[in-house]
Design a protein that fits this description.
single chain, mainly beta, Porin, twelve-stranded antiparallel β-barrel, 2 helices, 7% helix, globular
Amino acid sequence: MKLINFSIIISILSTFGIAQTYPPPTTLVSIPSAGTLVRGSYAMQMRVQKNGGLTSSLSVGITDRFQFGLSFGSANLIGDDSLEWYPRPEANLKYRLIDETTSMPGLSLGLDTQGQGQFNEADTLMRYDVKAMGIYAAASKNWVTPLGNLGLHMGTNYNFAEVNDGDKDINYFFGFDMEFNPELSILLEYNAALNENDMTAKTMSISKGGYLNAAIRWTFVERLHIEMDFNNLLFDDEKVDYFNRELKITYIEYF
C-alpha cells in the first residue's frame, strides 16, 4: 500500500515534460527535496528560531549521490533563560536513488532526525515541537521558465523515534521553489503533519491541519544564502498568537 501511494506521487510529477537544467535545492523551508550536495562540497547552516533558539548543522557531499550531516542546538541559546540543549546530535543522511530526466523526477531516500523548536521531555513525550522527517522518500522535478528555475517536490515520511505521543502515522509533504533571478527565490511547502493529529500528539500540535510554510531566499554573495522563513501559516490561534518567523543562513563551500 505504501509503495502504491508513492508510485502515484511519482506518476503525477512525471506528467510534466519540460526539460530541466538546474538541480533542485537539498531542502525547501523544512521538507527535503531529491537534491543532494555534490561530491567534495559541504554546507554549514544556522537556523535562528523563536525564543532565542538556534540550530546549527553541517552536511557533506560524500559522493554525487550521497550526503551526510549532523545538527545540534538549544531552544534558549540566545537570551537570559536557562539553556535547553537538545538531548543529542541529530543525523541527516540522503541518497539519490534515481536521477532526474526530462520525463521523470529524481528520487531520493533519506533519514532526518532533527525536529524544529523546543525538545519536549515532560511526561516522557520526547519529541520536538514540530516532529522530524524521520525516514523519507522525496521526488523532485525542475523546469526552466522565463523567470528562472521552477521546482516541484513531493514525498512521504515516517518518524520512528518521536512516537511517545501515540501517533505513528505515515505523513506526506509537497512544495515548490521558484527563481526570479540568480539571487532571489521564493519557496512554499505544506507538511500534512498526519503524525500529529492523534491523542496526545494533537494536543501538542501548534498547527491547524498541517504546516504551511513560506520563505524568501536571497543569495547574498556566491554560496551564501540568507533566508527569511514564515512558518506555520495555518497556526492554531488557541495555542499560539501568530505564525512563526525564523532566519536561516546557509554557506556552501568546496574542499
